Structure prediction request, 669 residues.
Amino acid sequence: MVRSRRILLAALLLPLLGAGALLLDRIAPPNLARLAVHGVEAVDREGRTLSVLPAPGGIWRLATTPADVPPLFLDLLIAAEDRRFRDHVGVDPAALARAAWQFVAAGGRIVSGGSTLSMQAARLLEPRPRTLRSKAIEIARAAQLEWRFGKDGVLAIWLTLAPMGGNIEGVRAGALAWFGKPAHALDPAEAALLVAIPRRPEALRPDRHPERARAARDSVLLHRAARAPGVTAEDTSLALATPVPAQRRPMPRLAPHLARELARGPATGTGRIATTLDLPLQRAAEGLVMAALRDLPERASAAAIILDARTREVRALVGGEYGAQARAGMLDLTRAVRSPGSALKPFLYAMAFEGGIAAPETLLADLPRRFGAYAPENFDRGFAGRVSVADALRQSLNLPAVALLSEIGPIRYASALKAAGLPPRLPPGADAALPLALGGFGTTLREMAGLYAMLANDGMAAPTRLQPGETAMPRRVLDARAAGLAGAILVQPFPAGGPPGIAWKTGTSWGGRDAWAMGFDGRHVVGVWVGRPDGTPLVPGHDAGTTGTATGLRTALPLLARLFERLPPNPRAPLPVRAGPTAAGTEPLDRLRLLFPPPGAVLAAEGAGHVTLRATGGRRPLTFLVDGAPIPAEPAKREAAWTPAGPGFYRVTVLDAAGAVARAEVRVR
Prediction:
C-alpha cells in the first residue's frame, strides 16, 4: 500500500516538476543571440567549400553540429573536458565537489571550475566574469540547456562558439583557419589542437605561441586519448610527431561576388548556401581571368561565366577582381549593364532564317546605305561588297545586319530578346530602332550567356540557375532549324589556337568600351566580358575601327579559348567545323590586289584631274570605293576613273563579288 502511494505521488509530482521547469524556462530563457549570429559558407554542387563570409563584427564563426566533425574529435573532446558527459544532466556532482575542495584548500582561489561541456556551453552563450555567482548561473543554465536541446544541442553550441584564437570561433572556422580543410577531415593531431586551444585561446595560438600550443595538444593526446575510443595508440604516436601550424590560412574565397550576392537572400539557418558551381572549374576560371589581366589595357577588368548548356546551371562565375588591389572592388561585372556590340548578331540572323527573310547562302550588299537618317558603318569603316549571309555574320558586317533588322522590325526583335530572357535596356525615352542590330542597348554577361544557351538548345529558352532546385519549363523562342543554322555558321577555329568544334562570336561596343566573346559547343556556354568598370574606353583616344582599339577579338576571345580548353570536350559535337571566317569558295585562286595606287602613294591628278584606279585578281564584278563612296565603273573592267575632290589623304578600296577586299591609304597633292 505504501509503495503504491509513493508511485501515485511521484506520478502526480513529476508533471508538476516538469511544468515548473517549463515555466522557469519560459520566464528566463537562455540568451541564444550569439549562437544565431554566424558567418555564411557557400558550397559547390558537391558540398565543397567555395567561400566563407564572416559574421558581423569580422568574427569567423560558422554554425557547427556534431555531424560536421569526425567522431574522433568528439571522443577527444569528451575525454578531455567532460568524461561523464553522456551520463549527467548538465552538472557533474563529482567534478563540482572536487572543484569546491580545491577552492577551500587554495584559500578561496578558483583552481578548477568543475565545468561540464554543458556549463561551458552556457558560458559561451553568455560570457561572465569567473565568480561564484557566475558559476551558480552556469550550473542552472547547463541543466536548462540539456533539458531544452539535449546532448547534441549542447555539443552544437560548444562546437560553434568555442574560441580558437583571435577572431576565430568554432571548430569549422578553426579547421579552415589553422589547417585549410573542412572540420570533417580533421586528423587526430589537428583535432587535439582544436580541443586544446579553447582552454586558453590567446595563449595557445599556434601562430604566436607554437611551443605552448604543441604542449597543450600533446597533453590532450597523451593524457586523454586513452579514454577516447576512436583514437588508437598508432594515431597518437603519429599525431605527436606532427608539427603545429606556423600561421593562419586564408579563408576560402572562391566566387566571392556570388557568395555575397546569395548571402543577402533569405537566411538559411545553418549558414550554408548551396550553389551550382563546380569548385575545380571555378578555381581554374579565376586563375585564367587573373592571368589574362596582365595582357589587358591599363585599368581594364574582366568577367567570365561558364554555363551548362542543357540545365542552364552556372558552373563558374568570375565577377572580376577582388581584394585590396581590385580595380572595381566587390562590383560583380557579370551583372553590370553594358553594350553588347556585335555579340548579339547571331540571334538577329537566326530570326531572319526563321522568318524566311534570308538563308545562309543568300547574297547581301555590304555597301554604303542610309536608313532614313541612320547611316551605319562597318567597324573598319570599309565595305565588303556582295557577301553571303553566312560570311556577313562571321565577318560581323554592320550594313547587312541593319538591313535584316529593317525587314524583321526593331519592335519585334526587342520583344523576341525579352522572351529569350534578355530585355533590351534602352536610354530613357528611347524606342526600339535599327541601332539595336549593332548592340545599341544595355545587357549583362549573365543574360548573354542565357541567350547563347538558347541558341545551343534548338531555340529553347530557360532561366540560368545559380542554386540547385527545380528547373523552369523551357519555352520556345526560335525555330530549332534557325537556331541550328546560326550556330553552325559560327563554328570556326580560334585565330590563336584552341579546341575545335566551338561556335563563337565576338563583339565590341561603340568607342571600344566593352569587348565580348561568347561561345558554345552544345555542352557548355562560355562568356567573357572585358572593359573598364567605370565605362570609359579601353584605349582612350582611339575611335572604333582604329588599330589601337581593344576589340573583343583581341582581348576577350583569347580568354574564351583558354576557358574552353579547361572544359571536357563535347562528345556529341553536332556542328561541322568550317574553314574559318572566309568560307570555302569565297576566296578566289587569284588573290584580289590593288595595283594602283599602291599603299602610301603620293599622287598628282592626271590631265583633267582624273586618277585611274586599277586592280587584278578577284572575282568580277569589282567595286571601287574612295573613303567608302563607290566610284562608277564598268562591271567587266578592273579599273575605274576617280576625280579627287582636292588635296588631302584618301582611302581607296576595291571589293570583288566574293567579298574579298584590298585597300590603300594615299595622298593627293
Remarks:
- The longest strand covers residues 301-308.
- Residues 492 and 580 are 5 Å apart (CA to CA).
